[in-house]
Amino acid sequence: MSAAPYPAGLLRRLAAAVYDMFLLVGVWMMSVFALLPFTDGRALDGSSPVFRLYILFVPFLLFGWFWTHGGQTLGMKAWRMRIRRTDGSPVDWRYAALRYLGAWLAWLSVVGIIWIAIDPQRRGLQDWISDTETVVEPPQ
């Protein structure tokens, strides 16, 4: 195995995404639970635009925090991957926001994710939009 980081492939990214989805579902549950005192314990109206924006903003905070504080989500850490700028520098909140928007486009279109398997640099739509790359770190 190489001592230098190399681009992460599609299967490794999908495996990390499964790990991260479990974490995200838990965080979503806690974030909705945190709103209950403001609704007198009643169920929230899922059709409310404010609630929908809140539900979209929670993952941005979660993933953005991980990406800007070490470049790894929990799933990425398990699979030894890291997000970084293409010049090797860490991701800041501006690039995290671009990556988050790009990830939504990539996952919704599916082509943006499948492209990782085709691209020689293994970059997906979220990588192109945010000028970032996902690399596999060598074992320690």
Automatic annotation (TrEMBL):
It comes from the Bacteria. This is RDD family protein. InterPro entries: Pra-immunoreactive, RDD. Coiled coil: none annotated. The keyword DNA-binding does not apply. It is a multi-pass membrane protein. It holds the Pfam family RDD. Keywords: Cell membrane, Membrane, Transmembrane, Transmembrane helix. It is found in: Cell membrane. The keyword Transmembrane helix applies. The chain crosses the membrane at residues 16-38, 50-67, 97-118. Residues 8-130 form the RDD domain. Its main location: membrane. It comes from Spectribacter acetivorans.
